[in-house]
Amino acid sequence: MNTTALIPAAGMGRRMGASINKQYLELAGRPILAHTLALFENSPDIDRIIVISPQEEIPFCREQVVSRYGFRKVHDIVAGGAERQDSVRNGLGALPEPSGDDIVLIHDGVRPFMPAALLPEVIATAQQVGGCVVGVPVKDTVKEVSDHRVVGTPVRERLWLAQTPQAFPFSVIRRAHDRALAENFRGTDDASLVERLGLPVAMVQGSYRNIKITTPEDLTLAYAFLGDKSL
Ligand SMILES: Nc1ccn([C@@H]2O[C@H](COP(=O)(O)OP(=O)(O)OP(=O)(O)O)[C@@H](O)[C@H]2O)c(=O)n1
Ligand SMILES: C[C@](O)(CO)[C@H](O)COP(=O)(O)O
Hints:
This protein has 231 residues and is α/β, with parallel strands linked by helices. It has one domain (3-227): Spore Coat Polysaccharide Biosynthesis Protein SpsA, Chain A (Alpha-Beta Complex), CATH 3.90.550.10. The protein contains seven helices and eleven strands.
């Protein structure tokens, strides 16, 4: 049984509005993507890493991140697709000789503060349950809104924010992506593709620090986390 981390990093970072793609912005002197890859490189529970990059940035990613920081577990860097779901599907296609019970962890390239101590529990849960999502309980009240009118207030006790990593046996996530493609279903995370097959997905509590660096405010938070020695 192999454990592979798929790292989608093929987005364009439009909401960040930076002059370079956000995964290459530097935090503490290293690209965000290098911080993220280090979490998996240094984990004894991860056998290999596949990075998914925009096609035109693959050479840059190889030279300026993978080679420069010596990520030896990176097995391949493959081209992404139009949406995150397409990128993950391309990454699944790059697993060398996958077997059904191999565990695939999918983790956004722009979540560099994921607590790596979670990885053994995430992998074990994916093996036992068939799917595992890391997330945190919602802290605010959530409103459903249509046309600037509140149309509902879901019960907060049941609401969690889904983060990554999300982990699955290869057979499960392969089937979920194949079905989504065949049925033209678009989900905003990988677990939703598995859920719609009627298969169980467990939630493991993660950290409020495991932010997805999406907008400039997230960089301010990232600097604050890096300055916080209790991290
Ligand atoms: N076609 C895409 C879109 C996103 N991602 C990756 O999925 C993760 C989460 O996506 P997000 O933060 O939304 O990144 P972007 O799509 O780059 O952001 P934006 O929507 O602002 O352009 C990121 O690591 C991003 O690189 C990807 O691999 N392929
Ligand atoms: C997968 C994800 O990070 C879970 O929160 C998120 O759904 C990705 O969304 P995006 O709009 O593609 O960034």
